[in-house]
Model the fold of this input.
Amino acid sequence: MAGTISRFWIRWLVVLWGVIIVMGLALIFTPLVDITIGSHYYNQYFDYDAYAVISDGDLRFQTFLYGISGAVLASWAIVMLFLVLFPLRQGQRWAWYAIFLSACVWFIGDGYASVATGFTLHAFLNLGLFIPLMIPLFAIYRQTQ
Done:
C-alpha cells in the first residue's frame, strides 16, 4: 500500500503544472513574436531589432513553431497534472519517477538547446521552473512506495 502524500505538495504541483498548461496555451493562441514581450526577449541577443528585418515567411514559420511548442508543452503538462492528481497523490512511486525523469529530460534538453544556440537567458528561466518542480518531488519521495 502506498503512503499518504502531503496535500501541500500535491497542491503545489497542481498549481505549477496548471501554470505550465496556461503557458503552453499562450504560446499557441497569442502571437508571441512581434506584439508581445517575445520580440523584446529575443532582441536582447542582437545589436538591432531582429524582428524589424525578419521576412513575412520567416515570421509565420516562427509563429508556427511557437504554436507547436505550445501544444507539446500544454499536452505534456496535462499528462503530468493527471499523474500528480491520481497515482502520485496515492503515493505510487512509479508516478514520482515518471514526473521526475520527464522534468529532467525537459530541463537538460531545453537547457542544452538554449545554451548551444546562444539563448542563455532562456536556460536560466528554465532553472526558475525546474527548481520549483524539484522541491516538492524531493520532499515527497519517501512518502511514495
In short: Helices lie at 7-29, 37-43, 50-53, 56-88, 93-116, 120-140.
